[in-house]
Design a protein that fits this description.
By secondary structure, the chain is mainly α. Helix content is 85%, strand content 0%. The protein has 2 domains: 1-94, no CATH class; 96-217, ABC transporter transmembrane region fold. The chain has 6 helices and no strands. It is elongated and about 85 Å long. The mean pLDDT is 75. Its main location: membrane. It is a multi-pass membrane protein.
């Protein structure tokens, strides 16, 4: 009951304060980035990766990504770490042998999460670059819409934009395959349920040997 009342207060407060921190950080980052951009040399904007469309996409997407990391992700991380610490304390008091077994399997689960994040980060970086190129095509077309309409090249511009979007689409398909079948959900669930099975087996052996009771496990 005490934990229930504490959760009623802690969860809304956690979401509220981390959301405020994330929004303020995004505002600060966007302001600093924009201030830095407008003071760059003119030749810097001639490079493809520094075009107006790409910069706009970066200011929007990258800041939003940081908002997710600082806000929701960081709040979830704090909550998970707290749950792990409290769970380990309770498990150690109830049955320290089983607690050590579960603790020994945590590095394997952490390694699985690390590899998954490495794969997903690589795919996301490639897709972000490709979407930046597509955004630049759309930005140039809208900015010069009178010229586009005068020469009747709307279909050509649409084809260019479609071709630029094909790369991110293929990257998304590969990401789905990797996350669903490969080192993503398939392997993750295997590691998770293998850990469950090992814990249940060790707990059953401890009960069978009389070292603990069924209620404790």
């Amino acid at each position: 009951m005490v934990l229930g009342f504490a959760s009623i207060i802690a969860y809304p407060a956690q979401t509220f304060f981390f959301a405020i921190a994330g929004c303020k950080l995004v505002q600060s980052i966007r302001s600093m980035c924009f201030e830095k951009v407008i003071h760059m040399e003119v030749g810097w904007f001639d490079e493809t990766e520094n075009s107006s469309g790409t910069i706009g996409a970066r200011l929007s997407a990258d800041a939003a990504t940081i908002r997710g990391l600082v806000g929701d992700a960081l709040a979830q991380t704090v909550q998970n770490l707290s749950s792990i610490l409290v769970g380990l304390v309770i498990a150690s008091l109830a049955c320290w042998q089983l607690a050590f077994v579960v603790l020994a399997m945590l590095p394997l689960i952490a390694l699985n999460g690390f590899l998954y994040m490495k794969f997903m980060t690589g795919f996301s970086a490639d897709a972000k670059k490709m979407y930046g190129e597509a955004s630049q095509v759309a930005n140039d077309a809208v900015g010069s819409i009178r010229t586009v309409a005068s020469f009747c090249v709307e279909d050509k511009v649409m084809n260019m934009h479609t071709k630029k979007c094909e790369g991110p689409m293929k990257t998304g398909i590969r990401q789905g395959i990797v996350s669903g079948i490969g080192i993503g959900f398939g392997f993750s669930f295997f590691v998770l349920f293998a850990s469950y099975a090992t814990s249940f087996y060790v707990g059953a052996r401890l009960v069978d040997d009389g070292k603990t009771t069924f209620d404790t496990v």
